Amino acid sequence: MAASLKVNGAVLATVAVIFLAAVLPSHASTMVDEPAANYKPAAPAPPPPASSYTPPPFVVVHGVIYCKSCKLRGYNSGMDASPLPNATVSLVCYGDEESGYRVLNQTSTAADRNGYFIVMVYDVDMFDRHTCRLYLRSSPTPLCARPSVPSNPKLGLTLVRDRAATAPRGARGVYHARTALMYAPGAGGKCPLY
Ligand SMILES: *[C@@H]1O[C@H](CO)[C@@H](O)[C@H](O)[C@H]1NC(C)=O
Ligand SMILES: *[C@@H]1O[C@H](CO)[C@@H](O)[C@H](O)[C@H]1NC(C)=O
User: Are residues 68 and 31 in the same domain?
Assistant: First the structure.
């Protein structure tokens, strides 16, 4: 009994040594080769408890897309325009030398029934309200697809900080376009039917 335990103990010890020999050097070399700051464990870290979870930083760009001069659902007589559900815009940010002149080009959510869209920018380093523009991207209907604001679809709208909006947790800022974006009916002037 005792002998067999000893044998097993010796076998276990040998296995442990082999195991450690196999495991330790790779860890050791990783730590020697890379500065501690760059060391990333291969396995994903367990999710932190909900109370201490910090969402990644992001910037919100939001607004409303309208169909000009059409009396559709939600018509606004002051603007003479109606929300255009399912239309989209693009947020384009032009990086400088520091980013290697990278361009961020992100499509918004499809506008909801109130014409409301949102762009969540997680590439926060690329966001600078002075170098970002909002462009009309797509209309859901050929009956309201002529760019109206901005009228030149190649000239985007500049952004301003939305001081009225409550920034969600983690948001670095909330922005909207200088004015609402609008499509308009084409030459025939026929409006969509919704
Ligand atoms: C918007 O898109 C959804 C899903 O594709 C569709 O069901 C809906 O009819 C569209 N609404 C309008 C007003 O185009
Ligand atoms: C952004 O992407 C859209 C969709 O792919 C494209 O139509 C548009 O030309 C792009 N804009 C820029 C400035 O790259």
Answer: no
23 and 98 in a common domain: no
Asked if 159 and 89 count as a contact pair (C-beta separation under 8 A), the reply is: no
- Residues in the chain, pLDDT under 70: 1-42, 44, 46-51
Asked whether the beta carbons of 73 and 120 are under 8 A apart, the reply is no
Choice from 93, 104, 105, 135 to test ligand 2 binding pocket (greatest atom count within 8 A of CB): 105
192, part of any domain: no
pLDDT at 111: 98
* pTM for this predicted structure: 0.73
The protein residue with its alpha carbon nearest to ligand 2, atom 11, reads 105
**Is the torsion defined by CA of 97, 98, 99, 100 positive or negative?**
positive
**How close is the Cα of 113 to the center of ligand 1, in Å?**
9
